[in-house]
Structures are given as structure tokens and as C-alpha cells.
Amino acid sequence: MHLNRRADATAVGGVFFLAMSLLVISLILYSLSTQYDLTISMLEKIEENKPEEIEVTPIYTYMVTKNASIVSYSVTIGSIVDGGSNPLLNASDNDVISIDAVKLVDLDLEYIRVPSSTLLLQDSEFNHDFEYWETQISPSDSGEWSILTYNGGDNASHVIMRSVREKGHGTNSISGYIQQNFTLQSVENMESMTISLRYNASLQGSLGGRGEVKQAYLKVQVYRDGKKVGDETVFNLRHQEPGVVTGWNSWSEDITEYFNKAGDYTLRLFVKLEVKGQHNVTFEVWIDKVELNFTYYEERPPPSEIQAYFTEVYFNITGLENVYNISSRLLAYTNTSILCNIYTRNSSSENWVLKEIEYINEASWFNLSFPGQMIRLLFSSSTPFNVKLDYMEVRAWVLNTSGLYVKVYNKGAPDVRVISVWVNNTRTPSEGVWNRWMLSTETALLPVSYPLEKDKSYVIRVVTSRDVYTSTFRT
Predict the structure, then answer these.
(1) 241: which of 71, 105, 252, 299 is 20 to 30 A away, CA to CA?
(2) Closest Cα to residue 418, out of 460, 458, 450, 457?
(3) Average pLDDT, the chain
(4) What's the mean pLDDT in 443-451?
(5) How many angstroms separate the Cα of 85 from the Cα of each of 94, 257, 442?
């Protein structure tokens, strides 16, 4: 009897233990499931609360390429040796316009203007440390300037900037520059001022959840008598993820417009790093061969007699509608060195404007590029010459009258869901939703069919799941 009771008790205990075990396991699984649901819900709320920001840009033109069938021409100065059958249509087919220059005048001058140039900056290759350059970093403990070697021994100025933010969503800003001062006594005979340099840049490190590189650039700045008068961007690595290396690049720019007065000038190479949110970022920039080329005219006594020979050709481009910009390329040949003055017609004043002067220094085939619908090419030399015109190509940016692309750039942290795009009062798609998802920093081109007319204003509204973004443009 006692044995049976013990057996019953053991069986009851086993069942109770099994039931309690199942209950504990169920509670653990329920707890894990609840924690998982809470975590997913929290992540969804965090994602929903991230700020959304997009840039909207309309693209309503496209480029067309045409041959010389839309070009009419006339030789206004010169003697046509061979007019060809279909000149300018094809390259290297021996079907050319051949023109001999004509002698117009014997010149008796007191002086002639001769182009000359000089470099205004000293130690452009940084071979004398920073003897001729001033340097600065702000804050002073966030970076430094130095001279480093590359390419087996070439010197370059080098700046390194280090930015760290372990907590918060604020923005760190570091800036620095190297600069050199010089005086420009006169600009009366100035032809041009051109800046050129070589650079290499590196952006390394890491970004936190909301970290973003707002700015990482090199700019050329011009100061006159202590006041900034010019600003040109060489490069900007904004919105880039760390790990970017540009490699060595050459850069040049015509900055004549900033030197319209005599005075004391400063050329500043300005570097800036601006990073938002949690991050640990290093920005390095190498700069070399900084040259400021000042081109001007000198007045010199002329030879006893100057003979002048000229050829002039007039071009008119027709048959293009809704045009914004036209550029043309001409393949030509000369049997000696010549000057070519390129003139375009100003549509508002109807005056001819000198756009460029090309010097062809030997007998050779050469290319000329020029903008505009109406062009005059004036060739000249002190000796007789012949010019052959072989091939002309026209490129034009025209209005897309049937529609446009809406360029959308997601510059915010969260993903963006584009629902629709409105142009004025027309919706795309006409029914339903676009449902176009865009990741952070992604760019999308959204095609929109909508008739466009020249000289009209339009309003674009991009509708996302959170907001509406508006942009206006005029064709």
C-alpha cells in the first residue's frame, strides 16, 4: 500500500514539474516575443522621427548634334580658291573650302601691342617651406599645415584636419588657409588672370548613425585691400562617406573679373571641414604648383613696315527651335602661323563681341570651338597664307517640349518614399502612387510627360509619404 502511494506521489510530482517547466518556457518565449515586438516598434518610431530632406531640380533641356547642313556661310574677306561641292559636312574627305588671304594695308604705326605674361606668386612649388606663404588653422588644435614630398621628391603644401564628436547631433567646423600677398600696380593693359594648381584630397574615418559630412572643400579666394572680391570652388566632398581619395588632379580657372582695379591683393587657398553628428573624421589636402598667370600687352616699337593679310568667314546657324545654348566645332588647316579672332553676335545689342583669340603657331590642322548662332572668324598674319575649312559640327541645348526629368536627391537620413510628382496641376502618375523608394544620398531621375513652352513658368511639387517639396523654374 505504501509503495503504491509513493508511486502515485512520484507520478504527480513529475507531471507538476513538467507543467511548471512548460509554463516557465512559455513565459520566456512570451517575454522574448514581447521584447522583439517592442524593439521593432521602437526602431520604426526612430526611423519615422528622422528628419526627411530632399532637393528637387528640373531637367528640361537635352543636347542635339547637327552637321553643317543647318549652317550657311560666306567669305567676306579673302579669295576663294576652291568652294567644294558639299564642304563642312564630312571630315577628311578632301571636300573643303580653300581661301587665300588678301593683303589689305601696309601699316605705319608708332608702336604695336605685344602679348606678354608673368607669374605673380613666389615659390609656387613650395621649395622654400612657407617662406612666402602665410598659414592658419582654426581651431588651432584641430589640424596643421606642413610641407610633404610626393612623386619621388616633389614638394607640396599639406593640411590635415581632425574632427571628433562622440555624442550629440551638433556640427564641428574646422577651417584653414595658406595665402600670399602681392600688389597689382595697373590693370590698364591686362588681358587675363588665370589661376592653376594641382591637388589631392583624402576623407577618412567613420560616421555615427546621424553623422554627415556637410562640407569638405578647397576654395580659391581673392581679396583686394582686405576685402573679399572673388571665390571659386576647386572641389567639395560634401555628402561623401569617409574612405574617399581623389588622387592628383589639375585645376585652372579664369579669374580676370576679380582683378578690375589696381591694389594690394591676397590670393587665399581656403580649406574647410564641417561634420554633423557623431563622427571621427580626418580630412587631408595636398596642394602644389599654384600659379597665378597675369597676361597683359606691352607697347613696343614696330618694324619699319608691317604688312597685314586677312581672311574673314561668316557663319549663320539656322533651323533650330527653342534653343538655349549653341556651340560649334570647326576643323581647319593653315599653311603658316596665323591669328584667329572669334566674334559672336550679341542678340540684344546686335553688336559683334570678341570672344576669343587663337594663335596657330605652325602649318597644321587645328580645331576651333565657339559659341553662338552667328559667328565671324577673322584670320590674320604678317605673311600671305591659305586656310582650308573641312568639317563643322553644331551642338545645341534645346527645350524638351514633350516633358522633363525631375531630379530628386535624398539628402536626409531616412529612406524617402516618393508618392507622386505634380507639374502645375497635372499629376504623375495620373492614378495610384509612384511608390519610388530612395535610400539616403540616392539620386533619382523621375520622367514626367508634360508639354513645355519657351518663356513660361512652371511649378513642381514632389509628394512623399511625409511631406511636399516645391520647386519653380522658367523655360
Answers:
(1) 252
(2) 460
(3) 88
(4) 94
(5) 10, 45, 52
Per DSSP, the residues of 222-282 read: EEETTEEEEEEEEEE-TTPPS-EE---EEEEEE-GGG--S-EEEEEEEEEEEEEESSEEEE
Instruction: Identify any residues that bridge with 272 across adjacent strands, giving them in sequence order.
Output: 175, 217
Structure confidence at residue 317 (pLDDT): 94
249 φ/ψ angles, rounded to the nearest 5 degrees: -135, 150
Instruction: Say how far residue 25 (Cα) sits from the centre of its chain.
Output: 63
Q: How far apart are CA 319 and CA 67, in angstroms?
A: 12
User: Which residues, in sequence order, are bridge partners of residue 208?
Assistant: none
How many angstroms separate the Cα of 43 from the Cα of each of 38, 66, 413, 439? 9, 56, 14, 17
Residues 331, 390: contact at Cβ < 8 Å? yes
Q: Where are the beta strands (DSSP E) in 301-442?
A: 306-317, 323-334, 338-345, 352-360, 364-371, 374-381, 386-399, 403-410, 416-423, 426-428, 436-438
Question: 105 with 406: CB under 8 angstroms?
Answer: no
- Three-class SS of residue 11? helix
134: region left, alpha or beta (phi > 0 left; psi from -120 to 50 alpha):
beta
Please tell me the distance from the alpha carbon of residue 343 to that of residue 371, in angstroms, as a whole number.
9
Cell reading at 177:
588657409
> In 10 A of CB 348, how many CB atoms?
5
The CA distance from 376 to 316, in Å, is: 9
Residue 349 exposure: Cα atoms within 13 Å on the Cβ side: 6
pLDDT surpasses 70 at 302: no
Sheet with 212-224, strands from edge to edge, namely 134-138, 171-184, 263-276, 212-224, 227-236
Q: Is 176 in contact with 136 (CB distance < 8 Å)?
A: yes
Strands (E), 36-78: 54-59, 61-66, 71-77
Q: How many CB atoms lie within 10 A of CB 440?
A: 16
Report d(CA 32, CA 211) in Å as an integer: 32
By the 10 Å C-beta count (0-12 exposed, 13-18 middle, 19+ buried), 196 is classed as middle
Alpha-carbon span 461 to 471, nearest angstrom: 7
Is the whole-model pTM more than 0.70?
no
Could you give the 3-state DSSP secondary structure of residue 98?
strand
Question: Would you call 178 exposed, middle or buried from its count of C-beta atoms within 10 A (0-12, 13-18, 19+)?
Answer: buried
403 Cβ partners below 8 Å, 6+ apart?
Answer: 447, 448, 449, 450, 451, 452
Q: What is the pLDDT of residue 408?
A: 93
Mapped onto helix, strand or coil, the DSSP state of residue 185 is coil
